[in-house]
Fold this protein.
Amino acid sequence: VRRLFRGLSRIALALAVLSAASVAAQDYPVEVPGRVPDAGPAAPEGIALPELPPPPELVTPLSILGRLVVPGTREQLEWRPRGGISSAEMASPVIVTRGALPGPVLCLTAGIHGDEINGVEIVRRLSHSVDPARLSGTLIGVPIVNVFGYTRGSRYLPDRRDLNRFFPGSRSGSIASRLAHAFFEDIVRHCDAIVDFHTGSFDRSNMPQVRADLTNPDVLEFTRGFGATVVLHSPGSRGMLRVAATAVGIPAVTFEAGAPARLETAEIAEAVAAIERLMHKQAMLEVPAEPDALSQGVLLVGAQAAAEPAPIFLDSRWVRANSGGLLISEVALGERVAAGQRLGRVIDPVSNVERFILAPVPGRVIGMAENQAVLPGYAAFHLGTETSEQQAVREAALPHAAEPVVEDPAYRRETTDAVLGEDFE
Ligand SMILES: [Zn+2]
């Protein structure tokens, strides 16, 4: 009986502890409804306390490439990848503008393909023009990622590899893979978002346009900031900087502008304006960078910024030459065309036969080849048809054939073309 009594009293004790615990838990709820934490003592009746602004968020110096960049300053640093191509190689400039006010880290990269120099000038211009005292957040500009290609006017690395197929890279891989790895670790991991600048390639030119994986909600939201800029859905290829960055949670897009191996002032200006709109949208800049824009009434703050035109989402397709010969265009980049309209002709200089290339659908010429000698099947015109954001996102989500990994786009298989066309970023 005594043992039974002891057993019962243990159970009773356990129950008492349990119920005390639950009472205790009720005594200290995690969230007290209606109570503002740290609100301080209430004001005595009849006396209004002054409304104080919240304490400013502290901006700390940015530690990057072995240096500290303090808030409100701009520093030009050098990136020299460990185990780089050659010690004689020029360093890649990295312009870091650490804003005086808190905000995101936006990275602008260009020259991953060394011959695509429009982007070099776009990033250089933006990186040196933003006022650190008025910047909320940080702008990191890397105008020439592939210094080797840039100094030789080449798209490629010395081993003919395409750097934009090797991100995020590896420490022990090929030279392309090591460079990609060093850039990813030294720069990319500091970024909250990335815009990577490119141009058309292989004698083609692109109207300024954003290419983005619209199936990723963070990337989609990021594209909304570019204002009235053309946006194309493109999942991208494995190894592209934007694909690798997005995979680790850093929304990234490609910005295409113009043709390789030349400087095109109109395309450069359009891209610079698009990035300034993006920085307003991200609340990094409150007024346009040009001081005289204020006097012209171009103040992009508050309601006006919200009323900026939305991006233009496009579906696109490539129109190919069906015969070989000399391609001569009859349209200009950016032109709107009707279905059946002549885009250009291919002249066979041997048989003296001319064949016309017609637009299969109405649309806008968002990319096109330079006049040149072409083979049958050459992708000559990139036509975009306006669609809604919703429709673009719906189509982006449709299943596509798996993308083969290609190192050199020049050897891309026909099956890849069906998915990506000729969008060599
Ligand atoms: Zn490129």
